[in-house]
Amino acid sequence: MRLFSLFWLSAITLATQGQSQVNKTFTNPVLPGWNSDPSCTFVKEWDNTFFCTVSSFLAFPGIPVYASKDLVNWKLASNALTRPEQVPELYRNSGQNEGIWASTIRFRDGTFYLITSYVSWYDGWGPKILLFTTTDPYNDASWTGPLHVENPANDIDPDIFWDDGKVFMSVAAGIYISEIDLKTGAATEPIRVWNGTGDRNPEGPHLYRKDDYYYLLIGEGGTETNHSVTIARSREIAGPYEGAPHNPILTAKDTDLYFQTVGHADLFQDASGNWWGIALATRSGPAWEIYPMGRETVLFAVDWKDGEWPFLDVVRGTMTGPLPPVNKDIPGDGHWIDEPDVVDFTPGSGFPRHFFFWRPPKTSLFAISPHGHPNTLEISPSPVNLSATPAFEPKEDGLGFIARKQSATLFNYTVDVSFNPEVEEEEAGISVFLTQAQHIDLGIVNLQACSGTTFIPRFRFRVEASGKPNITVPETVVVPVPKEVR
């Protein structure tokens, strides 16, 4: 078999009205590990709970939705994308940056709305806008198949916003707004409302209405070290929009802060009316060279007085704010994001809900507790290795690979492997995985013996770095597996 277990490189209890608003200390990131492009909403009707979602690209199940009542302890509530037929195009993606990009999650009249973009270069650039809904955020199966929303601007990062009986979608790059029909998916001709402050890649828009203004929050500068958050406002939704005099209102560029690339933010209130924000960031320092946890979600307090512009706390590892009381009373069987795993694949069990595949899996490659092998996961060999080849066909070939996000920088990990290879180069092992073009593998591989007539298992350590060609790649190391453990 070929087994790869992934470690991905890559807030929120509410205080009720009248509770003490004493500042408390919290630690970033609140969603550690690969949790980029976050969007959050507070839902009083669901027991004062915050719900957040992040990008998932080719991961399946995808579009995770996390829940919290104290802004610190987060639990996987559901995955909006769990059925291949919801987005069958995922089967044909071969590019590693394709799939489900940034989403927006909102709650309205008893229904959760999650609007996102599916991006693929398979037929040329043409993002598809998908709108998922549910009335139960703790139930994977309750998420609908997506409504396909017209995308006349041919852009990404959709936001959904209700105003005076109408529904609006804003998209990027360069910020456009259209009115949309939630029954048909029809969209009006987009109006370009703001180009940002002049930095590149104005994107990730979110609209808010406050104090008789429409506020438009966006990211600028690209998702690298020039990333920033800017804001503008207007008396009319179609503009003209005036930028804040203190833009960017949040950034780490040109600083020596540990948290860099801060941007792509969303703002929300808690039950006491306090404003909060979340954004993506990397723990890289200004060198932006080593950040094995990828783009993570950070939390910060927001000071937004009536009629004034918002002021956002600078993102650091240790922060303070008027947090609600600690509360881990979150329903469902989802995984707490920073909780360790002991997974035995007991008979009759399914895959842990926070585990995922790279694209929808070829189910014939996987079996939990097959006959005669209880408490195991059997993975049959896929035709290609983890790096694949240009001829790789995801749906037909499949990939013998299952993963979970890395959520800590220091941890212990073990896996028990029973490996019975039949052909040369058959391999099983573990991987520190970013994409099929960037991963570090430690495997047991069936290689020819020195005699040339037989095959023996060997340990092999190797690095795939074609996705980052300008780095120095460690040499591949191959050593025999000791006879006593064969």
From TrEMBL:
<dbReference type="InterPro" id="IPR006710">
    <property type="entry name" value="Glyco_hydro_43"/>
</dbReference>
<dbReference type="Pfam" id="PF17851">
    <property type="entry name" value="GH43_C2"/>
</dbReference>
<feature type="signal peptide">
    <location>
        <begin position="1"/>
        <end position="18"/>
    </location>
</feature>
<keyword id="KW-0732">Signal</keyword>
<dbReference type="InterPro" id="IPR013320">
    <property type="entry name" value="ConA-like_dom_sf"/>
</dbReference>
<dbReference type="Pfam" id="PF04616">
    <property type="entry name" value="Glyco_hydro_43"/>
</dbReference>
<dbReference type="InterPro" id="IPR023296">
    <property type="entry name" value="Glyco_hydro_beta-prop_sf"/>
</dbReference>
<dbReference type="GO" id="GO:0005975">
    <property type="term" value="P:carbohydrate metabolic process"/>
</dbReference>
<comment type="similarity">
    <text>Belongs to the glycosyl hydrolase 43 family.</text>
</comment>
<keyword id="KW-0326">Glycosidase</keyword>
<keyword id="KW-0378">Hydrolase</keyword>
<dbReference type="InterPro" id="IPR051795">
    <property type="entry name" value="Glycosyl_Hydrlase_43"/>
</dbReference>
<protein>
    <submittedName>
        <fullName>Arabinofuranosidase</fullName>
    </submittedName>
</protein>
<feature type="active site" description="Proton donor">
    <location>
        <position position="203"/>
    </location>
</feature>
<dbReference type="InterPro" id="IPR041542">
    <property type="entry name" value="GH43_C2"/>
</dbReference>
<dbReference type="GO" id="GO:0004553">
    <property type="term" value="F:hydrolase activity, hydrolyzing O-glycosyl compounds"/>
</dbReference>
<feature type="domain" description="Beta-xylosidase C-terminal Concanavalin A-like">
    <location>
        <begin position="350"/>
        <end position="447"/>
    </location>
</feature>
<feature type="site" description="Important for catalytic activity, responsible for pKa modulation of the active site Glu and correct orientation of both the proton donor and substrate">
    <location>
        <position position="157"/>
    </location>
</feature>
<feature type="active site" description="Proton acceptor">
    <location>
        <position position="37"/>
    </location>
</feature>
